[in-house]
Amino acid sequence: MKPENTGIKKTAAALGTVAGFMLLALILPRYYLYLLALILTTGLLATSLNLVLGFGGMYQFHHAVFYGTGAYCLALILTKTGLPAWLGYLAAPLAAALLGLIMGLLTVRLSALYFGMLQISLGSLVWAIVYRWYSFTGGDDGIHGIPVPDLIGTSRGAYLFVVLVTGACLAVMYRIVTSPFGMVFTGIRDNPERCRAVGINVTGHQLAGQVMAAFFAGVAGTLFVTVEGSVFPDMMFWTLSLEILIMCLLGGWFTFFGPLLGAAIIVVLRTVVGSYTEYWTLVLGVVLILLIFFLPEGVLGMIRRGGDNAAGK
Amino acid sequence: MLRVNELVKTFGGFKAVDGAHLHVAPGEVVAVIGPNGAGKTTLFHLITGQLVPDRGEILFKGKNIAGLPPHKVCRRGIARSYQVVNVFDRLTVLENVQIAVLARQSKTWNLFQTASRMCLEDTIRILQNVGLADKADRICANLSHGDRKVLEIAITLGSKPELIIMDEPTAGMSPEETAATLKLMQRLCRQMGLTLLFCEHDMEMVFSIADRIMVMQQGRTIIQDIPERVRADKRVREAYLGGADTCSA
Asked: Domain ends where: B113, B130, B160?
């Protein structure tokens, strides 16, 4: 098959999927639209983490802080300023990217584990500021009743907005992953020493990757505000970072769509299990243990491996 | 082309390289030999920027490159291969070389083109040149040791270097593979006018391919000269060939 054909087919499949999701808005009741919007938002967040985790091999242990930064930035602009809403939607991901740049400059030169540890420390610092600064961020109460623009303020409007934005972001991220930058990024994951030896500025690429991941996490943050109409400090607490890390591992962190699948599984599980018991984290723990023992490459990773074996590779 | 003067590198008290000298002229094939622990690999690490020297100069095309980070050394025109195979195991043979070609053509910051379709011509030409074209789509981890060592060379060619540095290009190879690699290196040097600096334990190979040989012992340069004179040199015989000659040649 010619490469141009596969490109057109992929684009057609992507557009078809987006159209399909939009049609669901006509059929599904409100609650399911809300759940689906939440899955897509979380899926976008997990995919943005996987950009650096799975493709870049960087132990991004505190990704939620960029999600929270995006969400708070939009929430504060909508509630505390008279600026137009679209400016808030634009500024929020940029603020997250800026935080990604600052934290990246401090952490990116460190080796894998220290990178992760320092990131948790810095991220927790941001969390502590948001948690304590009552007069500005609302402290542990968060901010509620955020005035989202009317067009996307209804549950149906919010859902459609989430579908379009998630679709666009995933398309851009897919492009990045298959670009020369993405190829070099996986090369850095597998063998940074060799990358340096062929003339690649490893630290520079890692920093750029982190800024991109933070940007898309910020976008996911704005989607959360659109869907929920509120923000709270838990959005940037490290337990959420752990949860999205698990989503990547569960879905398959060496695949592009794995984290999306992982997010869907976790969100559905949390919703279903959460309605029976408050010990949801216990179930999450069991899932994690099973995952480590039986699915080290995640669900999609296993499916792909199964396909390869069947094809006799 | 390359000139190393009074180079010193100490690891906590131990002088790994202690005043080494080296000179490589354009188009020349220079071998570095010496007993284990003589400092050959450290010398190469210093030249390619993996290590920063304590003292001394490394002049490449007249400019001091001592202390530059590896990616900048590569950009200046020096590419290296490794003693222990050091490739991208999860990628295909083609992609392994493609990364080097992309880096060489400064395309690694390109975010929106499809990588798998870029630089294919240059990449495939290199694979054909080293005889790996028929294995282009194989995942690297599944290759034989000999093929992986050849891939090492192919990746260095991807950087389109003026000077290639090879750290034991035939280490761990069977005699047949060694002979084939030797032929490949000779052909590449002739065809592409490459300048080559390498170190090797296989004396037969060193004396058959090198224009000049530099002998190291305990971090120092004993001599650098044409093979006949190195073979005849008394100090070299004492330091190195004397005992090792019988077992390695």
From this structure: B160
Domains of chain A by range and CATH? 14-310 (1.10.3470)
Domain that holds residue B64: 1-77+161-249
- Which uninterrupted H or E stretch holds B44? helix B40-48
Q: pTM of the prediction? A: 0.87
Which of A183, A186, A191 is the mutation pick for testing B, counting most B CBs within 10 A? A183
| Max CA separation in chain A (angstroms) | 63
Residues B156 and B173 in one domain: no
**A199 and B88: CB-CB below 8 Å?**
no
Kindly state the helix (H) or strand (E) to which residue B217 belongs, with its residue range.
strand B212-217
Judgement on whether residues B171 and B226 belong to the same structural domain of the protein: yes
Count of domains forming chain B: 2
- Please tell me whether residues B97 and B207 are part of one structural domain: no
Distance from C-alpha of A111 to C-alpha of A102, rounded to nearest angstrom: 17
Model confidence pLDDT, tens digit, residues A96-123: 999 999 999 999 888 878 888 899 999 9
Chain B: residues touching A (Cβ < 8 Å): 48-50, 69-72, 74-75, 79-80, 82, 86-91, 95, 98-100, 102-104, 107-118, 155, 158-159
* Pair B57, B14 in one domain: yes
- State yes or no: pLDDT of B248 exceeds 50: no
**Contact state of B111 with A186 under an 8 Å Cβ cutoff:** no
pLDDT digits over B34-90, tens only? 888 888 899 999 999 999 999 889 999 989 998 899 999 999 999 998 888 889 988
With an 8 Å Cβ cutoff, are A199 and B95 in contact?
no
